[in-house]
Design a protein that fits this description.
The protein is α+β, with helices and mostly antiparallel strands. Among the domains are: 38-82, no CATH class; 95-154, Orthogonal Bundle (DNA polymerase, domain 1), CATH 1.10.150. It is built from 5 helices and 5 strands, in the order H-E-E-H-E-E-H-H-H-E. It has helices at residues 2-19, 60-66, 102-106, 112-126, 143-149, and strands spanning 38-44, 50-54, 79-82, 95-96, 153-154. The strands form 2 sheets. The protein has a 3-stranded antiparallel beta sheet with strand order 2-1-3, with helices on one face. Strands 4-5 form a two-stranded parallel sheet. A hairpin with a 5-residue loop joins strand 1 and strand 2 (50-54). The protein is elongated.
Length: 157
């Protein structure tokens, strides 16, 4: 019985093979590559350096505006954009100073519990930070401290 089944399968293959000659060209279609989209890190002289989503059709101007635009003293000839490669991690995760709890802010270099509490108190009293440079308005918060953490924080969602 099994031999008969094998014989029928082989015969069917021969008949199908005879119907479709091998000299017909085979057409192969490849899908078009999708246009790039995803996330991009924007740094340098922008108000809110960080990782921002990029959609198909976005321009450099769109990306800079998403990062809060250039700072007042910006050298607009220098913009740092990092596009992570496919399958790679998109850099460090920044701490949003508008939403982070005090314990997380305290973990930043040079912040500690006192400055973390001051950040939380400031945003409760004045609303969300519009720019990371606004930290300089907090008593005891200087330019050196901001410089040490500016690449680790953001005000973006």
């Amino acid at each position: 019985m099994a031999a008969l089944l094998v014989l029928v399968i082989i015969a069917g293959g021969v008949v199908i093979g005879a119907k479709y000659p091998r000299d017909n060209p085979v057409e192969i279609s490849l899908p078009t590559a999708p246009e790039p989209s995803g996330n991009i890190y924007v740094g340098g002289e922008v108000n809110n350096p960080g990782i921002y989503p990029v959609a198909v059709g976005d321009t450099l101007e769109d990306v800079i505006q998403a990062a809060g635009g250039f700072t007042d003293n910006a050298d607009t000839g220098y913009v740092e954009l990092i596009v992570p490669g496919q399958g790679k991690v998109a850099g460090i995760q920044k701490i949003n100073i508008n939403t982070a709890d005090a314990w997380l802010l305290a973990a930043l270099p040079g912040i500690g519990d006192v400055r973390a509490g001051a950040i939380v108190a400031y945003r409760k009293q004045n609303g969300p930070f519009q720019d990371i440079n606004e930290l300089l308005k907090i008593d005891g918060f200087g330019a050196v401290t901001l410089e040490n953490i500016k690449d680790l924080i953001t005000v973006a969602d």
